[in-house]
Write a structure and sequence with these properties.
alpha/beta, Rossmann fold, 4-stranded mixed sheet
């Protein structure tokens, strides 16, 4: 039987990708979702960066989301691959997954939260290449206010700059308890 997969979900700049990267450093491989958005750093992990044309040719998409930055998805084959244990997704992606996934792999949801101020500061810092980082951050916050209104989760973890180690420990323990590890 294939182990469950943990869906790491949360608003922009809540720390999802950082936590997922640390899970990967502890042996839990992350699905490299397809995305059309630009890389944030030259060595960014967690995604397979493709063009809109390549994205349009993908088949068997079972999780899909769109943000102000681009489109994201995973295929049935990726999700069913037992080498993967972690998938970073947004709330729309979870809804799409629940409606379209036809396999038997179980999944559990870890909802990562952070204060609005910390999220805003993180987004401004990481979007220095944008013409107007403040405007970009505000657009993402506005989008997320609707996107994350009702998140179905199994655990909610607060990830502030002051408690990252505790947040990671809680997420890791959750993965252990749910049989992901």
């Amino acid at each position: 039987m294939t182990k469950p997969i943990v869906l790491v979900v949360g608003c922009s700049a809540s720390g999802k990708s950082t936590l997922a990267a640390d899970l990967e450093a502890h042996g839990l491989k992350q699905i490299p979702s397809y995305t059309t958005r630009q890389r944030r750093t030259p060595d960014e992990k967690g995604h397979t960066f493709i063009t809109d044309e390549e994205f349009n040719r993908l088949e068997d998409i079972i999780a899909y989301a769109e943000t102000t930055g681009g489109r994201y998805c995973v295929t049935q084959q990726m999700f069913d691959d037992p080498q993967y244990s972690v998938y970073v997704v947004d709330n729309s992606g979870i809804k799409y997954l629940k409606e379209n996934y036809k396999g038997d792999r179980e999944f559990v949801v870890a909802y990562i939260t952070a204060s609005l101020k910390e999220r805003f500061d993180r987004m401004v810092r990481r979007s220095v290449d944008k013409e107007d980082p403040v405007k970009f951050a505000l657009e993402r916050i506005e989008h997320d206010a609707v996107e994350f209104r009702n998140v179905p989760y199994d655990i909610k973890i607060e990830n502030s700059d002051d408690n990252y180690d505790e947040a990671f420990a809680a997420l890791y323990l959750f993965c252990e308890q749910k049989g992901v590890i």
